[in-house]
Amino acid sequence: MIKADVLLGLQWGDEGKGKIVDVLTPDYDIIARFQGGPNAGHTLEFNGIKHVLHTIPSGIFHPTAINVVGNGVVIDPVIFRKEIEALQKLGVDVQSKLLISKRAHLILPTHRLIDAASEASKGKNKIGSTLKGIGPTYMDKTGRNGLRVGDIETDEFMEKYSALVEKHKQLLSFHQYDYNLSELEPTWFEAIEFLKQLQFVETEHYLNNAIKNGKRVLAEGAQGSLLDIDFGSYPFVTSSNTICAGACNGLGIAPNRIGKVIGIFKAYCTRVGSGPFPTELDNETGEKMRQIGREFGSTTGRARRTGWLDLPALKYAVMVNGVTELMMMKADVLSDFQTIEVCTHYSYRGKTIDYLPYNIDPAYLKPVTVKLKGWNKDLTQIDNKAKFPIELMEYIRFVETAVETPISIVSVGPDRTQTIRM
Ligand code: GDP
Ligand code: IMO
Ligand code: MG
Fold first, then answer.
1. Does residue 340 carry a pLDDT above 90?
2. Which residues lie below 8 Å from residue 383, measured CB to CB, with a gap of 6+?
3. What is the pLDDT at residue 314?
4. With contact defined as beta carbons under 8 Å apart, do 75 and 107 qualify?
5. Ligand at shortest distance from the CA of 295
6. Ligand 3 centre and the CA of 303: distance in Å?
7. Which residues on adjacent β-strands are paired with residue 98?
């Protein structure tokens, strides 16, 4: 039986998942997002145009692939509508190629307000949330209060909506948070009406039948493993399981139906929002990396924090995901560095360790790095691995050996074509 493959980020998000899903889509019949929501920003570049997708899977530009928004995703109807309308303007036939799980939860205007109120009340301990209402929506899901896509088609929709909003109003008054809901609700309800033209499906049946019938499915992750609610740098994480197991929960595909697990990582590290970041370069080198890599958030425009590649963290992500192959992104960004550092160990409470521990707070943990010679050569025009500089090949081998997993693709620029198969 052909199994479903999973593609996900191994760091703190923004590894380049959107680009690679787009590159791999010709090999698949179905692309399915399994968690997260409009906190994600997945960038695709081809024919000189750049597209940023938030909720819609990154296979949408291919003529035949079906794109599934799984039950594990949370949908903001307003953002979703904007995304669809932008695609329709480009001539993409979204209606026939997009299936939405009836079990996916809806982000209400009040979820966004609660996100903002909760962040404001945390002061300097704030998560650095994208303020898209992600945390409050998943809280209502696990708290068994949530509103789902399938509810839109029922007579009780308004009743359920109002009951949930009443709960939210109490929470907002507890936070003493000022807001004007009447400004937000009309657009939200218009977007709900808009959604009704789309296909609401029991995607768990659809996907399992597809797999049974030999269709090739690629599950697309959002965020990254170090933002996972269980295995990330808690509490500075997102509110879903971003790891491979999240694809099973978020799509209704059993673990024994999962085939390849493709882990995407940058040749260095970035993080946007708060929380510990062991290899962070809060200096000129980090600023240089940010400028060359254009490390500014695809969703919020915030500057991303930058740092060297962290191998113990990468090994951890490979372990919890069962990664079978790696893809290294943004190698071109390191071309201007004479020396490239890589974190191989940590100094943790006076001991040297080679694994990611429970506590990665800078007060307890410092990175131990090795210095490697940079390649100092532009990579963006290279079209074949035979043309890779020797130092880059050494860098690739160094990582593969450390994490005991092969690298199958090296990306040398944002465009579809700047993708080198190993
Ligand atoms: P995602 O959230 O994992 O899909 O990643 P984002 O789209 O948020 O961020 C990745 C950014 O890097 C985007 O602006 C991409 O266009 C860009 N990008 C992807 N791969 C490469 C690459 O190999 N080199 C360079 N320079 N940019 C890349
Ligand atoms: P993609 O899919 C990078 C970060 C936020 C914040 C934390 C919690 O594009 O890789 P949330 O809005 O989920 O409550 O924010 O997680 N974060 C991301 N960082 N890429 C993302 O998605 C992210 N989605 C959330 O910055 O630190
Ligand atoms: Mg992103």
1. yes
2. 417, 420
3. 98
4. yes
5. 1
6. 12
7. 67
List, for residues 124-153, the tens digit of each pLDDT value: 899 999 999 999 999 999 999 999 999 999
- Cα–Cα distance for residue pair 6/369, rounded to 1 Å: 31
Active site residue 345: no
286 lines ligand 2 (CB under 6 A): no
Closest protein CA for atom 25 of ligand 1: 413
- Backbone Cα Rg of the chain: 21
The answer to whether 63 and 275 have CB atoms below 8 angstroms apart is no
10 Å CB burial of residue 29 (0-12, 13-18, 19+) is middle
What would the 3-class secondary structure string for the chain be?
CCCEEEEEECCCCCCCHHHHHHHHHHHCCEEEECCECCCCCEEEEECCEEEEECCCCCCCCCCCCEEEECCCEEECHHHHHHHHHHHHHCCCCHHHHEEEECCCEECCHHHHHHHHHHHHHHHHHCCCCCCCCHHHHHHHHHCCCCCEHHHHHCCCHHHHHHHHHHHHHHHHHHCCCCCCHHHHHHHHHHHHHHHCCCEEECHHHHHHHHHHCCCCEEEECCCCHHHCCCCCCCCCCCCCCCCHHHHHHHHCCCHHHEEEEEEEEECCEEECCCCCCCCECCCHHHHHHHHHCCCECCCCCCECEEECEEHHHHHHHHHHHCCCEEEEECHHHHHHCCEEEEEEEEEECCEEECCCCCCCCCCCEEEEEEEEECCCCCCCCCCCHHHCCHHHHHHHHHHHHHHCCCEEEEECCCECCCEEEC
Tell me if residue 42 is catalytic: yes
Task: Tell me the best of 35, 227, 231, 237 to mutate to test the pocket of ligand 2, counting ligand atoms within 8 Å of each CB and taking the most.
Answer: 227
269 in Cβ contact with 311 (< 8 Å)? no
What is the average pLDDT across 192-209? 97
Which among 5, 22, 29, 42 is annotated as catalytic?
Answer: 42
Report the interhelical angle of 109-122 vs 181-195 (nearest 10°).
130
Position 1 scores a pLDDT of 82
State how far the Cα of 309 lies from the Cα of 10, in Å rounded to an integer.
11
Distance 352 CA to ligand 3 centre (A): 33
Q: Which atom from ligand 1 is nearest to the alpha carbon of 333?
A: 26
Q: What percent of the chain has pLDDT over 70?
A: 100
